[in-house]
Design a protein that fits this description.
Elements (H helix, E strand, L loop, with lengths): L23 H8 L3 E6 L5 E2 L14 E6 L2 E10 L12 E8 L4 E6 L12 E8 L5 E7 L5
């Protein structure tokens, strides 16, 4: 069996400027330590991450709602083979949790040992500010109530 002739391309890197004018409050509030969603004023649907327009009734009348971040883990996966843009990261865990307010959120799950992660565990969605100034959010195990 012969190998198909090929040459390796050089590494490509693409950086986008993502417009955020309609969701700027979300990013500003993350920086301040708060998690926000949007709620359609017409049909009442709650969105996280926030949206500028309702996908249910197509209304552009949305209001900002602060979320508690409290949730319950629904599913998770450990990422060992990382995408190219995450090669500088150690293997990590991505999780989906149902938040107390009814929306589901997808985020990295941090500050917990792999062996201690369990479906149904209580988590908290919290803002994260990176050293380079980027903002995001992640799950951390919720503190146990006494």
């Amino acid at each position: 069996m012969s190998e198909i002739p090929a040459i390796r391309s050089r590494k490509l890197e693409i950086t986008y400027n993502i417009p955020i004018s309609k969701t700027k409050k979300f990013w500003d509030e993350l920086r301040e330590g708060k998690i926000y969603a949007t709620k359609c004023k017409k049909c009442g649907r709650l969105y996280f991450p926030p949206v500028a327009d309702c996908g249910e009734c197509y209304s552009s009348e949305v209001e900002w709602v602060e979320l508690s971040g409290e949730g319950e883990l629904l599913t998770f996966t450990h990422i060992i083979v990382r995408p190219t843009s995450f090669q500088d990261q150690q293997p990590y865990t991505v999780a989906i949790a149902q938040l107390k307010e009814g929306v589901k959120a997808l985020a990295w799950l941090t500050d917990v040992k792999k062996k201690d992660i369990k479906i149904g565990m209580r988590v908290k969605l919290v803002p994260k500010v990176f050293e380079d100034g980027r903002v995001a959010y992640e799950f951390k195990p919720a503190e146990k109530k006494k």
